[in-house]
Amino acid sequence: MAYSFPEEVLEHVFSFLSSDRDRNAVSLVCKSWYEIERWCRRRIFIGNCYAVSPDIVIRRFPEVRALEMKGKPHFADFNLVPEGWGGYVHPWIRAMSAAYPLLEEIKLKRMVVTDESLELIARSFKNFKVLVLSSCEGFTTDGLASIAANCRNLRELDLRESEVEDLSGHWLSHFPDNCTSLVSLNMSCLGSEVSFSALERLVARCPNLRTLRLNRAVPLEKLPNLLHRAPQLVELGTGAYSAEIRSDIFSNLTEAFSVCKQLKGLSGFWDAIPAFLPAMYSVCSGITSLNLSYATIQSPDLVKLVSQCRNLQRLWVLDYIEDTGLEALAASCKDLQELRVFPSDPFGAEPNVALTEQGLVSVSEGCPKLQSVLYFCRQMSNAALVTIARNRPEMIRFRLCIIEPQAPDYLTLEPLDTGFGAIVENCKELRRLSMSGLLTDKVFEYIGNHAKKLEMLSIAFAGDSDLGLHHVLSGCESLRKLEIRDCPFGDKALLANAAKLETMRSLWMSSCSVSFGACKLLGQKMPRLNVEVIDERGPPDSRPESCPVEKLYVYRTVAGRRADMPGFVWKMDGDKALSADGSGNKPREVVERLGSSYAINFCTWLSYSLQSVPNTDARIITCMGQRNLFC
Amino acid sequence: MEGMMMAHETDLNLKATELRLGLPGTDECEEMLSAAKNNKRASPETVEECGSKGGSAAKSSHDEHETAAPAPKAQIVGWPPVRSYRKKNLQTKKTESESGIYVKVSMDGAPYLRKIDLKVYNGYPELLKALETMFKLTIGEYSEREGYKGSEYAPAYEDKDGDLMLVGDVPWDMFMSSCKRLRIMKGSEARGLGGAQ
C-alpha cells in the first residue's frame, strides 16, 4: 500500500493497545498488521491451557513478557474434577524458559505447579517480577524458597487460595538481604509459622510494599511490629485476630493501625475476638474492601464494625451477619458494589442463623451501586428475586446458592423460574449467573430469550428436559462458559447445538444424561473440539453406547488431543474413545448406524421444539467468525 | 440424574390406597411439598441399565425429605459449592469451641485433686457454687475490699505468670484465659489473702 505507515510507527501505535480483543482485531486487518502486532504483543491471556500448545503460542508471539493462564474447570473448586485430571504448567515453563528469557510475569489459576516448575522459573527468567498462583496445587514451600532466593527483582508473590505442602516456614528466610523490591506478598494460605524476625526485616527493607497478607500463624500481638515498619500499606491481611485480652496488646494494636493512613483493604481475621475489633476503627473510614469471611463474629459486633466503613465497596462475610446486619449494612454503606455472604454451617440440617432472602433484598434496596452478589441462604421466594431484579438492573454478577437442592419458593412452593426470569430480564448487563432452587425448563427459556450478555452460567439440579439446555445454547449469544451438574439434559440439545460449542471456551456436564454414543458423535462432528469423557467406572466402551457418561468436558482447541490425560479421561475421536496414548477400539460401523438414527431423531425433535421456541434460528449450521481461540 | 429415581414411586400413587387414621386432607401440605421437591422428570431407561454410581446416595437423601426425618442427610459431592479451605476453617472453629478448659482444683488438706471445665460456667457465682458443692464447703461473699469474708475458705488461682491470685478480681473472660489451676485455701493462709495486709 502506497501510503502505509512505517512499521515502527505502527508498532508504537499498537503499544497503546492493552486489551486482547483490540489486539486480535488489529491482527486481522491485513498480513503486515498481523506480523507487526505479533512481534509487539507482550501480554498473553490463555483461558484454557489446553486450547492451544506452548509451541503455537511461542511461534506466533516471540516477545512475550507476561503470561496469564487457567487450567482446571471451575467445578474443580468443589471436588468434581478427580485428582490427576491435568492442568500441568510444567510443559509451558519448559518451553518458555528457552523462548522467553525476558519473561517477567506468570499468573496461573487452577493449575498444577511443581517445585520443579518453580525452580525452573527461578533459574530461567533473570528479570522475573510477578508470580500469582491462584487456587493452584502441587508445590511445596521448597519451591517458594527457590523463588525467594533467586528472583532478584521480585515484586509480587501471591499464593491466594493455593494448596501448598507446607514443609516449613523457612522459605521466607531465603529472601536475600538485598531484596528490596517487594510490592505484594500474599502467604495467607500457608499453615506453618515463618520466622518472625525474617518477616519483620523483609517488610522493613521493602519501601514499596503495598499488599501484605499474612497467614494465620502470625500472632496478633506481633502485628504492630509489622505495621510500624510498613505504614504505607494499602492492603493488609492479618493473621489470627485473637490474643489474650490485655490492655497493652489492645493499645499497641490501636496505635499501629492509626499509623496506616493508606489502608484500603483488610482481610484475614481468623479466630477473631470482638474485643479487638475496635482497634481498627481508626482506619474504617478509608476501607473499601473488607474480607471477614473467616471471622466467626456475631451480628452485633459485625454491625458495629461495618457501619463505620462508610466507603465500603466490597464486603465478604459469614452469614452470622444475619438479616439485621445486612439491613444495617444497607443503611451505612452506600458505595457497596460487591457482597458475598458465605455459610457458617453449610452441612447443618437446620438454619443456625437468622439469614434469609430478606437480607439480600435490603441490600439491593439500600445500595444503589450493587453489581456483584454471591449469597448462600436457606430460603428464597420469587417475590424477593423480582424485587432484587427491579431494584438493581445494573447487576453484573449474580450467584445465589440456596443450600437445599431444588428448594422451591418457600411462600408459594412454586419453582423459582419467575424470580430468575426477572433477574435476566431486568439485568440486561448480566455477565455471570449461578442458579439454585427448584427450576423447570421455563427458566432456561427466559435465559435464552433475555440473557444476551451472559458469559458464564452455572446450573445444578435444575430443568426437566433437553429443551432447557437447547434454550441456553441457542439463545445466549455471549455465552463462553457453561457448567452443569445433576440436570436431566441429554444428547439431543447437545448435538443439535454442536456448532455453538466452538464459540465457547468450555462446557462441563456431570451427572447428566449424555450418552457415550452422543459424545463420540460430537467428537466426530466437531474436530476442533476436544470432547473428553471423565469416567471413573472404567472405559466407556465397556458399557452400552446409550449409557450416560459420568462427566463430560468439551472445549475448543487448536492443539488437538492432549497428551497428558489420566486413565479415567477419554477423548472422543470419531468412532473411538481415545485414551492418552491414542489407543481406542470401537468398530466404525456401530457409530455410523447410531449416527444416522441420531440424525433422523434430531431433525424431528428439533422441528418440533422449534415450533415452541420462538427466537431460535438455524444455529445448527453456523459460520465460524474469527474469534480468538485462546479465550 | 440422582433425583430421577424417585419418579416411579409417585407414579404408583401408593398414598391413595394407604390406610391411615388421620382425617382425609390433613396430609395435603406434606404432599404438596414432596410433589414440589420431586419435580416432573422422566427417569430414562438408561439410568437403570447402567446403575449410576451417585444415584443411591442422593436417593436416600430425597427419601429422608419425604418422611420428614431430622436425621443427617447423605452429603452430595460438591454441594453446597463451598471451597475446601473454607470448610476446613469452619471445622476447626467448631472443634475448638467444643473442647473445654479443664483446670486442676486442689484443696488444702484434701487427699486428691479434682478437675473442672471452666467453659461450663457463665461467671464467678456459678463457679463458686460448683466448688462449694464439689468440696462441701462455703466460700463466702466476694468484695473487692475484703476478699472472701465470712468463711474459712478462699478460692485462689495460679495465673500464666505463676502468681497466686484471688479469684474474682478480673473480668470472667480474662480469668478463663489466664487461669492455670485453682486452689482452695484454708484457715489463716486464706485470711491472709483477703482484707488489708
Automatic annotation (TrEMBL), chain A:
List the Gene Ontology MF annotations in alphabetical order. auxin binding
Which keywords does this Swiss-Prot/TrEMBL entry list?
Answer: Auxin signaling pathway, Developmental protein, Nucleus, Ubl conjugation pathway
GO biological process assignments: auxin-activated signaling pathway; pollen maturation; SCF-dependent proteasomal ubiquitin-dependent protein catabolic process
Nucleus as a keyword?
A: yes
Q: Which domain of life is it from?
A: Eukaryota
Q: Please state where this protein is localized.
A: Nucleus
Q: What's the protein here called?
A: Protein TRANSPORT INHIBITOR RESPONSE 1
UniProtKB/TrEMBL annotation, chain B:
Give the range the annotation lists for the signal sequence: none
Return the GO cellular component terms, semicolon-separated.
Answer: nucleus
Q: Which UniProt keywords apply?
A: Auxin signaling pathway, Nucleus, Repressor, Transcription, Transcription regulation
Q: Where in the cell is it found?
A: Nucleus
- Fetch the InterPro entries from UniProt: AUX/IAA_dom, AUX_IAA, PB1-like
Query: Where is each PB1 domain found?
Result: 100-187
Question: Where are the residues of the annotated region Disordered?
Answer: 36-74
Top-level taxon: Eukaryota
Which Pfam families does this one have? AUX_IAA (PF02309)
Q: How does it assemble?
A: Homodimers and heterodimers.
Query: What family is reported?
Result: Belongs to the Aux/IAA family.
The record's function comment reads: Aux/IAA proteins are short-lived transcriptional factors that function as repressors of early auxin response genes at low auxin concentrations.
Q: Which PANTHER family match?
A: AUXIN-RESPONSIVE PROTEIN IAA1, AUXIN-RESPONSIVE PROTEIN IAA17
What protein name is recorded for this chain?
A: Auxin-responsive protein
Question: Taxonomic lineage per UniProt?
Answer: Eukaryota, Viridiplantae, Streptophyta, Embryophyta, Tracheophyta
